[in-house]
Amino acid sequence: MDAMLTWAGNAHATLPLGVLAGLTVMSLIPFLLVMCTSFVRIVVVLSLVRSAIGASALPPNAVLAGLAFVLTLVVMAPTLQRIERDAVEPYRHGTVSQSQALERAVSPLRAFMLRQTRVADIALFDRIAHRVPEAADRAPLGTLVPAFVVGELRNAFAIGFALYLPFVAIDLAIAAMLMGLGMMMLSPTVVSLPVKLLLFVMVDGWALVCGGVVASFR
Question: Is the bond leading into 108 cis (omega within 30 degrees of zero)?
């Protein structure tokens, strides 16, 4: 009887700590989604495409964020499956502790970030943090995460530049055409916007952009 009371007291004592740890992990999920997954590159590319078309408010931010989230799930599916198999399931069955499960969960995410990150970016943040440079696969998360985000922004802007060029060519052609016709009082945007929308729909632009940005991940 005394042993049962002792076990019950220990369970009640550890329950608040488990709840606190769970709430802490849940509060970090938005941070992990933005900083440690493919979300940054995807949402920036989609925003640049919207800006290149010239429709600054369409699609709305909520639609772009939702599409970026769905594409992020597609890109991260193999990593999430590894986390489920190596960390979540063993922890659910009680075969590993919380710290072991967290370590196993970080490992696939870390491998994904390393595949997208340049060694030069990791070395840069090692210098910023005044750390002794180590091998890239042993870089701490405090160095790997910002290096990964910088690399994602670089890749997103490179893709956005390539996507911008056709729309800039359309704007220049429309502006030259209107100037040649002597219609200088008419804003080129009024004419170029429907032309860009028509061409973007004809080539199935959103499907091409989504497929291209997903295929850009290693």
Answer: no
Q: 143 is written with which tokens?
A: 């160095």
Indicate the length of the chain as a whole number: 218
Identify whether the C-beta of residue 170 lies closer than 8 Å to the C-beta of residue 192. yes
Token pair for residue 134? Answer: 């180590």
Side-chain half-sphere exposure of 184, counting CA atoms within 13 A: 3
- How far is Cα 113 from Cα 128, in angstroms, rounded to an integer? 19
What is the spatial distance between Cα 73 and Cα 136, in angstroms, rounded to a whole number? 26
- One-letter amino acid at 48 equals L
**Which residues of the chain carry a pLDDT beneath 50?**
1-15
What digits encode the pLDDT tens for the residues 77-126? 888 888 778 777 776 777 777 677 777 777 888 888 888 888 888 888 77
**DSSP character string of the chain:** -HHHHHHHHHHHHHHHHHHHHHHHHHHHHHHHHHHSSTHHHHHHHHHHHHHHHT-TTSS-HHHHHHHHHHHHHHHHHHHHHHHIIIIIHHHHTTSS-HHHHHHHHHHHHHHHHHHH--HHHHHHHHHHTT-----GGG--HHHHHHHHHHHHHHHHHHHHHHHHHHHHHHHHHHHHHHHHTT-TTS-HHHHHHHHHHHHHHHTTHHHHHHHHHHHT--
